[in-house]
Amino acid sequence: QVQLVESGGGLVQPGGSLRLSCAASGSIFSLNTMGWYRQAPGKQRELVAGISSGGRTNYADSVKGRFTISRGNAPNTVYLQMNSLKPEDTAVYYCNADRWALPDSRPGNYWGKGTLVTVSS
User: What is the tens place of the pLDDT at every residue in 7-61?
Assistant: First the structure.
């Protein structure tokens, strides 16, 4: 069974930066799509950024120009560089992946347990 493990969350001041990492284990195949979702208290989970095996990326409008998603050199790894963080970015961030190509609006089958990002002064 594929398992996704996130790291890199924490407390940061507005305007600061964090880098989230996600690595898959237990996979004998490549994950075609990988990405990040987030969920703030009282809000629905939303797509933050996604990336295909070919490097095509997709971002939520709220993070464009501030966040960058990239695949790692190791197979089935993905990163999210978050710059110019705002209090509105506070949420639990979840790694998400699937072995198949998916529409941008559809999440993959595999989820991490989440890592908390808190943006506060």
Answer: 999 999 999 999 999 999 887 688 999 999 999 999 999 999 999 988 999 999 9
Alpha-carbon distance values, 15 to 87, 88, 95 (Å): 9, 12, 23
SS3 of residue 87 by DSSP: helix
Query: What residues does 47 pair with on adjacent strands?
Result: 37
Q: What are phi and psi of 89, to 5 degrees?
A: -80, -10
- Using one digit for the tens of pLDDT, what is the confidence trace for 99-116? 988 888 899 999 999 999
- CA separation, residue 109 to residues 2, 4, 65 (Å): 10, 11, 28
